[in-house]
Amino acid sequence: MSWILFKRVGTMVLTLFCLCTITFFLVRLAPGNPFESERHLDEVAEKALNARYGFDRSLPEQYFMYMGHLLRGDLGLSTKFQDRTINEIISSHLPVSIALGALSLFFAILLGVGSGIFAALYRGKGWDLLIMSLAVLGLSLPTFVIGPGLQVLFGMKWPILPLAGYEPGLTHLILPAITLALPFAARIARLTRAGLLDILGQNYIKAGRSRGFGTTRLVFVHALKGALLPLVSFLGPAIAGVATGTVVVEKIFQIPGLGRDFIESALNRDPFLVLGTALVYGVFLVFSNFLTDLLTLWMNPRLRGPS
Amino acid sequence: MKATSPLMMGWKRLLSQPLACVSLCIITLIVVLCFGASLFSTHQPEDQHLWVGALAPMSSHSSLVAIQKAEIGVLPKVHPSLSQYEQIKYSFKKEAYRELRIALHRGLIHRMFWVEGAVAIDSIAIKELENVRQRFRSGQLGHDLPELKLQMGNPIPSQLFQKNHPVIFLRFYSGSAQSGQVELNLDRGLVQTIVINGKEVESWEERAENIYHVEARGETQQLFHLLGTDRLGRDLFSRVLHGGQISLMVGGVATLVSLIIGLFVGCLAAISKPLWDRFLMAGVDVLYAIPFMFLVILLLSLFSRSLLMLFVALGAVQWLTMSRIVRAQVKASLNLPYVDAARLGGASLYAILTRHVLPNIAGPVIIYCTITVPAVILEESFLAFIGLTVQFNGRSLDSWGSLVHQGMQSIGSGGEQLWILAVPSMAMVVTLLALNFLGDGMRDALDPKDDHG
Predict the structure, then answer these.
(1) A40: phi then psi, degrees, rounded to nearest 5
(2) Contacts B411 to A, Cβ<8 Å
(3) In the 8-state DSSP scheme, what is residue B164?
(4) What confidence tens digit (pLDDT) does each residue in B391-446 have?
(5) Which of B130, B238, B434, B444 has the fewest Cβ atoms within 10 angstroms?
(6) A26 touches chain B (CB under 8 A)
(7) What is the ipTM of this complex?
(8) Separation CA B388–CA B306 (nearest Å)
(9) Which of A156, A251, A274 sits opposite B414 (nearest CB)?
(10) Which of A36-50, B107-121, B258-272, B374-388 has the lowest mean pLDDT?
(11) How far is CA B362 from each of CA A46, B57, B248, B320, B447, rounded to the nearest angstrom?
(12) Beta B203-207 vs B390-392: how paired, if at all?
């Protein structure tokens, strides 16, 4: 067990290192000058700016400098928003993105597991067919089709929720979170149904049934834990997908989150802000993958055997 | 009894599922429509008809070009569909107006000037609103407000504001209108005579917005838009078909790229020594943990946005799973008796792989490919939606993702012009739905063990 843990931690550290290195060189080797959009930039000012951001040094030097700052938790300075450090920008926008992601993950699990159990219980009946068809529809609806659709329905035709924008509180996050949750709810429903059907066909459930246990007890007490195993290993990709999805949902609903920073800084060629946001996403995803792995190992002792 | 290969059996099982068959037909139809776009739509996707703006589906307008020009003895500048006729009749109605150009900066009035003569002004109070109209927006101003006051540096009144339009044009009509008919007589494409209201003239020029009726050979000449037009008057049907070409092509080619890389790495890992195998797969594991969508966004926004880059970027994300599947399948097959038999028969490793093992693992590989195509289409439109469209010859190629984005931007605050959003969205959803149903059917047909999920 400790060997497996050691190996996972090693892989995680290696992945993070690769991520930082690849992203750094991608961003710094890209053509174009971050100060291009500044009008009337004379030579002295440009030199001063280059010195301020370290662009006057050689690339390997810049790389080691950046990595050194990174280890101390300093993400550097933005070339676009020159009055704020990147740490400040990210720490003011990250909570919004996390709230959005967490809320939509919550919706996705609630809706997905619920409808998955329901479909499995009515296997082959009308309900099952309906839920599974809706699930395929959910898989085929991109977030950027669901989002504007919900905006038109609940923001324009029946204006009950805010159309776009953000203010602290839940009301501005409900539509974006539902938008983001639906495709994952569809996948979770399919996984839950398949897992539950698999378990319900096993002998220990038959034994339980022959002892006279009711369906509710069998499903919720005996079968569900095993049935949710595939779901736990889906949690890693799901978190990654939700994080990617926040980028587009924040654009649709004009929410000032990390995703908008990422896209705008990539298009603005703001090198350290792109790097910073990409790394925050990367670290978050790698870490959540790691936790998912641990959770799977903890829940399924069969995986812990000698590999 | 005739021998049937597992693939043929799978194909027959696929054809026995009605849902998968319908999906297959829909996909075929969409592919034929998109790649034969020029056969099914007479419009070019980039042809603008600014003067008509957004038209609802199933509507038509006169066959015009932005400016009609004719001069005796030369080719006239008219809509291409008209140049074959010997006589074209235009009915026009011209109203005299002055145009005010208002430039905005962050919602505030930044600059105002009269277009005619470029006379800049600081402020203007408009009282008789029934004679004022906003260009590119139908309907009159002034039903709900007594007067408009525009002052430099002040916010623009909400009645004039249009999303994503940094410049607003106001027209002040003086009330006097001039109307009449122009007759062009052509011979072998060249203009012979020009008659305006019964008088012959040497040359003629008219903007499209002043012409309301076009006639040739006694018939009204109109352009028909099956699915309507977008805000710039571009035909949506043709835009959706041409956008589909990009989306489908990216889906197909990126899947092919991932298939080739995945097959190569998977086979290599399966047949090489355990140490190398572990090294390769550990590499795949490390790459797997990297959030690739973010790297793809970086690649496309920082480097070139060419088709090639998109194929490489998207294919590079997808090959990881493919290589895992191929490795597991090849490894399992190499232990089976038929491989031993082939080896005893003197077949080389290459021959065993290509002639014996690969045909046998085709099932899972095909299943994964059918899942990959919609996934790639989704990813490409995701990128296009956030503004990373493919560039080709200096202009963006609009795929379904960017069409949906344009649709989202053109919806009015009350949900008007919904079709601009709905048409590309529907095209996308129907395609993805059909591909997903086909994928499910494919899995049931080729992998009969797994009967649920």
Answers:
(1) 50, 55
(2) 148, 151-152, 156
(3) T
(4) 887 788 889 999 999 998 888 666 778 889 999 999 999 999 999 989 888 888 88
(5) B130
(6) yes
(7) 0.84
(8) 10
(9) A156
(10) A36-50
(11) 59, 44, 23, 17, 11
(12) unpaired
